[in-house]
Amino acid sequence: MSEYAALERELVTAIADAPDEAALEAVRISALGKKGRVSELLKGLGSMTPQERREKGPLINGLRDGVQGAIEARKEVLAQAALEARLQAEKLDLTLPLRESAIGRGRVHPISQVVDELTAIFADMGFSIAEGPDIETDWLNFTALNFPPGHPARDMHDTFFFPPDAKGERKVLRTHTSPVQIRTMQAQKPPIRVITPGRTYRCDSDQTHTPMFHQVEGLVIDKTSHLGHLKWILEEFCKAFFEVPSVKMRFRPSFFPFTEPSAEVDIQCSRRGGEIRFGEGEDWLEILGCGMVHPNVLRNCGLDPDEFQGFAWGMGIDRIAMLKYGMDDLRQFFEADVRWLTHYGFRPLDFPTLAGGLSS
After folding, report:
1. Banded pLDDT at 76 (limits 50, 70, 90)
2. Closest by alpha carbon to 291, among 224, 199, 216, 229?
3. Could you tell me if 291 and 312 are in contact, meaning their C-beta atoms sit under 8 angstroms apart?
4. Distances, alpha carbon 147 to alpha carbons 50, 122, 250, 293, in Å
5. First to last CA, the chain
6. Which letter does DSSP use for residue 346 in this model?
7. Helices marked H in 243-360 — which ranges?
8. With contact defined as beta carbons under 8 Å apart, do 269 and 238 qualify?
9. Exposed, middle or buried by CB within 10 Å (0-12, 13-18, 19+), for 70?
10. Most confidently modeled range among 41-45, 94-98, 174-178
């Protein structure tokens, strides 16, 4: 066996034994690199006589070609093995159920859902949405709404007061969304038809009260509105919101400083089996307060009560959400329990509409 054949056999064996591409590359460099063993033989052809080149040239070139062929063949084998290993590691069992996407796992909070439901219902009646800041002046939160300083009705609201400012005035966390009504009446001329959903704050906490809660109020101001219009709006709202064909309501005389006359509204319900159902039964449940806007409130907003009149109402969003969806503790709304939200929450792409259903 010639020295070239022996070298080729040695190199081919090393190539075949290379366990990975890195080892194979090391063998290639040792054989065909700039200072490799085969490369050195090729360099020596230049110093040979013509007769030696004719004899040894084909053998050395054959050695080079054999080594290159063995390297390419081994490289293909290693690449195929690497691909099979990767496929084995990354294989998927298509018989397993598909993992739910993030948007599929997410849920809309019941409060946000109910606000969307309210918006859909009242927008269909021609109402727009008005908003305002959570921190209000005493004048907007009380005085403009016919709560004079020292009036006992102020004690009805357990208010969070801020420390007095440089002028001695104390701002408050709004106790209702009624200040938004004042801002609306000051900013635009009648006719006005708005609802004002938002957060409100009172110093109270138990199973049915929280320091921060949500409220929606409605306001209509024009020249001809009356209690008959108010009654129709509230009846249509209750039918749409609770998704029942008919409701019975009763209006009981009450007192609110900002409305005159004032009334509290009860809706007929059934409590059989510990479940509240509306549109049937012989029981009654209070759901909101309402009345005609007090003339003093109109004057405080720069409106002439001899020319304009209107009505307003207000209800707790958290409360009507509990009534509709069967929640028994208001505090759970704010505990950020993912399990509770998964159970009571709504899918983010199921927008409530009057045509498609509010709570679909």
Report:
1. confident
2. 229
3. yes
4. 120, 29, 27, 14
5. 87
6. B
7. 295-300, 317-325, 338-344
8. no
9. buried
10. 174-178
257 contacts 182 by C-beta, under 8 angstroms: no
How far apart, in Å, are the Cα atoms of 142 and each of 145, 150, 186, 300? 5, 11, 16, 11
Give the angle subtended at the CA of 124 by the CAs of 120 and 126, to the nearest 5°.
Answer: 120
Evaluate whether 315 touches 287 at the Cβ level (below 8 Å): yes
Record the tokens describing residue 288, joined without a space. 């909101």
- Strand bridging mode 283-293 / 259-270: antiparallel
3 state SS of 57: helix
CA distance 147 to 12: 101
If pLDDT is split at 50, 70 and 90, which confidence band does 97 have?
confident
Report which DSSP code applies to 307: T
d(CA 339, CA 109): 12
User: How are the residues of the chain apportioned to helix, strand and coil, as percentages rounded to the nearest 5?
Assistant: 45, 20, 35
pLDDT in tens, 215-263: 999 999 999 999 999 999 999 999 999 888 888 999 999 999 999 999 9
CA–CA separation, 115 vs 98, rounded Å? Answer: 33
What is the average pLDDT across 211-216?
A: 91
- Both tokens of 278, joined, read 């509306």
Contact 257, 145 (CB under 8 A): yes
C-alpha separations of 320 from 257, 287, 292 in Å: 24, 7, 23
R_g (Cα) of the chain, nearest Å: 41
Classify residue 213 by its DSSP letter. E
Residues 6 or more apart whose Cβ sits within 8 Å of residue 190: 221, 222, 223, 303, 308, 310
